Amino acid sequence: MWGAVRSVLEALLTTYNRRMNTRLIKLLPVIGLLWLTSCGQPQAIEQASAVHDRLPEMRMRVRTSEVAYARLDFDQSFTGIVEPFREAMVAAEVGGRVVARRIEPGDTVKSGDVLVRLDAARLAIARDRAAAARASREVELSDATRDMQRGQRLFDTGAISDNEFDDLALLLEKADAALDMADATLRDAEKDLADAAVLVPFDGRVEVVRAQVGDYLVRGQQVAKLVDFSKARIGIGVTAGQAASLETGQLARIGVESVQAGVLDGVIQSIGRSSSDTGLFPVEIWVEGESAAHLRQGMAVSVDLEVRPDFEHLLVPSGAVLRRRGITHVFRVDAEQRARLVPVATGLTADGRVQILRGLSEGDEVITEGQFALSDGALVDIIR
Questions:
Q1: What is the pLDDT of residue 17?
Q2: How many Å apart are CA 237 and CA 253, to the nearest integer?
Q3: Pairing with 15, which of 40, 199, 237, 252 sits 20 to 30 Å away (CA)?
Q4: CA-to-CA distance for 47 and 40, rounded, in angstroms?
């Protein structure tokens, strides 16, 4: 009986060496061994085990690709929000009643134009009072200066004591300080009088007016909202890998549905070096000139960016990358033709390729087909 079993097992071994039905053949010697055990044949069991040990370790057939540096030319699309280049809610800097309103929503204004004018009568009185007080302090300083000069002569002849001379010097210092205070008060009054005219801080467009003739405004009350769309700012958020592939001055294509041409030109102005709460890095894009005139605050637009054409990334085919237990891995083939499970950090993805940030080196061989049935350390047979 053993002769027949042995013939079957050796035939199976020959079939294995021809690489046919490898998984089933791996199991058949074990099945035979179990059968002989149930028949109580110790010698047969030993011989069957020896045949099993002669079977080579099973190899999985896979395809591989070499890790290499290459360009990754592609467009990455983002959604951006449009903001004006400058925006301000202009407020009254002094209190007063509005006596004139010079602007309306939609008006184009220049820096220094008057938005509204307040009643300046009380402010003018305060300015005059401050001017009079300064003049009085100036006279006091002049008197104290003459007294000090006279006292200096008397002190030099011994006609007055040290204490009397010190008192004169102190009076002069007080008169000088009082004049400085009067100067400051006068400048403050003059500034308040000038602020009765609420002025435009920069060239732009009036969006909202919140003051009417007859309204009484207090200091800090909002008067008008201004925006400057000579340029437009567009903000987007990118990952760390994407940020590393961008540079300031790089062109961006802005897609706007409401524009007939559909696409506007922009330029990357800044790339953030610290991430937001979302983990993304802020990138600001400027759109200038006539293109900016098509944009409105709060508008959502598409932003297409190109990776720098002269920048090379360490790349693998996307089929080589898999996730296990929430971690991104690849199978790398080592010198012994074994598949090693290697965790990697990935970046950009385009055209069926993935950027490798950490975990692999140029020249490594990674498995691109057949890796889903592999275990770490398994022998592989590479299909060329």
A1: 44
A2: 16
A3: 40
A4: 13
